[in-house]
Sequence to fold (188 residues):
Amino acid sequence: MDGVESVPALLVPIGAPRLQRLGIVVPPPFASPERRLYALLQQTEGATAVLFGWRDSTIDVDIKIVPDRDHLLRAIPSIKENLRINVELASPLDFIPVPDGWEGRSPFIRQERRAFFHHFDLYAQALAKIERGHSQDLDDVQEMLRRGLIDRAKGLEYFAAVEPFLYRYPFLDPQALHAAVNEALGRS
Fold:
């Protein structure tokens, strides 16, 4: 943890009692990790935006646990209640088609003991944000482009690869999503 106050670094001591019952020793590196994490996450959505630094905090944390483990899943409700934040088992996979191999395209954040933290595939995140279409989500996509986290041409290629599979998501309007992607990722 190296004294860096981040979402992963604060989640580990919060889950320490459960981790210790599993035989993993986790010394708390910060006083009041729950309050510190809540303060870090309280203002806006987007853990990736917080960790990449274009937003100071978030109130919403979407996670995908791979492989999913009952002991981790059982810990989430109490963490959610203690922190008074929205924690959802959600990822772009739930909202848009994502090409195979997303795990390899998910940038590494850090490792805490045997737990590895990654951002979900940034192109999948961008497409899910475009699909959702809220102004903050669209601003996030533009910030991802400005910071070089995603590339316009590669984003359009990514969408072209998943577009034939939109039928698997009946709540999506393929024509509207196509137009939104071209507007968000088209040449500036």
In short: Residues 1-90 form one domain.
